[in-house]
Specification:
about 70 residues; 3 helices; flat
Length: about 70
């Protein structure tokens, strides 16, 4: 049981070190917006109608089920 707890602790430490390493390597740059606001305003306001699928079938009787097997 103690071995499993130790493996879990080692894994968590490894994840913490990896996250810290990636955070230190990446450049901190300001976010740049490529599009102006007019493109966002031109988006459609109402979503399209949702498609509806209806599945209907009759239940098989015991004799019909036996015939299929």
């Amino acid at each position: 049981m103690n071995a499993l707890k130790n493996i879990e602790a080692i894994f968590l430490v490894a994840v913490a070190v990896a996250v810290a390493a990636v955070g230190g390597v990446t450049e901190k740059r300001p976010l740049q917006v490529a599009a102006d606001n007019s493109v966002i305003a031109a988006a459609p306001a109402a979503p399209a109608a949702m498609d509806v699928v209806v599945v209907s079938a009759k239940r098989l009787s015991a004799a019909e089920k036996a015939a299929l097997i």
